[in-house]
Amino acid sequence: MMRVGPVVLLAMGLLSACQSPRAGLPHGPDAYAVIPPPAAGTTRGAYRIGPLDVLAIAVFQEPELSQRDVQVDASGNLLMPLVGTVQARGKTAHQLSREIAAQLGARYLVDPQVTVSVTASVSQQVTVEGNVTMPGVYDITGAPTLLEALARARSPTRVARLQEVVVFRTINGRRAGAVFDVAAIRNGRAPDPELLGGDVVVVGFDAVKGAFRDFLTTAPLVSAFRTF
């Protein structure tokens, strides 16, 4: 009787998962842990900091901590004196100001006043592909939701599987993905997730299977689908 090694079994399992993205990627409530909806109280349309943006950070009466022309790296992070690495991608300037102030205040300063401004921005884009009327790469401002991105692509086609819409995102240098039910979002039964520059939206069963195949040819087998 032929023996099948563990690596082969894992590969077979991953390939079979391609037949249903729900078998590998988080879906339902778990999907929103990866691609969350807009935070409560967030101003819609506010600019979200992205990779390679240039920022000015002013700490009131602390010139040694203030910085001009700080560039966000390709992973969406920046380095702040005393604080270290700070995740900037996806935050508004106001949100980043509050986060830096909180970290400085926790250990180093009393009631620090921090102001962050974007001095140069790089055009951010979202890719929408699969079973939509006009697939393509779309420039974005702020942070559109999934439904807004689909509207830019002239909506899913009639044959699209609305329960199989996948959003891929790079988080801290690693690729992650989640499955969303657009029909439930449209009906108000599920939140509308917020997209960031660099996200890839794949609509429809056949297109999703193709995206998984692309992943399997480039990613280690042990990197099963949640974060890869």
Automatic annotation (TrEMBL):
<dbReference type="InterPro" id="IPR003715">
    <property type="entry name" value="Poly_export_N"/>
</dbReference>
<protein>
    <submittedName>
        <fullName>Polysaccharide export protein</fullName>
    </submittedName>
</protein>
<dbReference type="InterPro" id="IPR049712">
    <property type="entry name" value="Poly_export"/>
</dbReference>
<keyword id="KW-0732">Signal</keyword>
<dbReference type="Pfam" id="PF02563">
    <property type="entry name" value="Poly_export"/>
</dbReference>
<dbReference type="GO" id="GO:0015159">
    <property type="term" value="F:polysaccharide transmembrane transporter activity"/>
</dbReference>
<feature type="domain" description="Polysaccharide export protein N-terminal">
    <location>
        <begin position="45"/>
        <end position="119"/>
    </location>
</feature>
